[in-house]
Every structure is written in structure tokens, then in C-alpha cells.
Amino acid sequence: MSKNALYTLYDNLPKAQQIASNLLEENQLKMHLGGLLGSAVSFVIRSVFKKTELPFLIVLDNKEEAAYYLNDLEQMIGEQDVLFYPASFRRPYQV
């Protein structure tokens, strides 16, 4: 299956359309995507981003997980629209 066929498949998913609608019409600014595996999250994010053209902030558990999503999203959306802000090595109140 080609990359464009996958994009079309995810663009037509009712849940992806519902997420985009919630962001645009109902101003629901916080969401949690659960139950998706592997790059499915990246495909949904790409689909919703293309529909809404809103900025997204994606918070992940660690730098390694963030690197996987960074790579996926740079390939799907483009490097110019994806930024990576890793945590600093300092932790607040750390002695």
C-alpha cells in the first residue's frame, strides 16, 4: 500500500474527522489519543493537522519515544512544520 493510499485511508476515518471537528467547532483544546499502535498515532495527527492547520503540542514520556514521532511527522508533514523541544538535563529542585 502506498503512502498516499494510507493518507487517504486515515483522512477518511470518522474518528479523525471527529477530532478535527472538535478542534475547529467545539474548541476542544486538549485531547488524548489512546488505543492506537505504532505509527497510527502519527497518521491520525497528520490527518487532523492537515484538516485544521492548527498548531499542536504533543507531549511524550521520553526522548526516545519523541524521536520516533518526530521522524514520522517530519516525513508526513514536512520538517518545516515539526519542531522538537527536548527536556533539559536539569530538573527543578534537583540538588
From TrEMBL:
Organism expressing this protein natively: Flavobacterium circumlabens
Protein name: Transcription-repair coupling factor
Source taxon at top rank: Bacteria
Cited InterPro entries: P-loop_NTPase
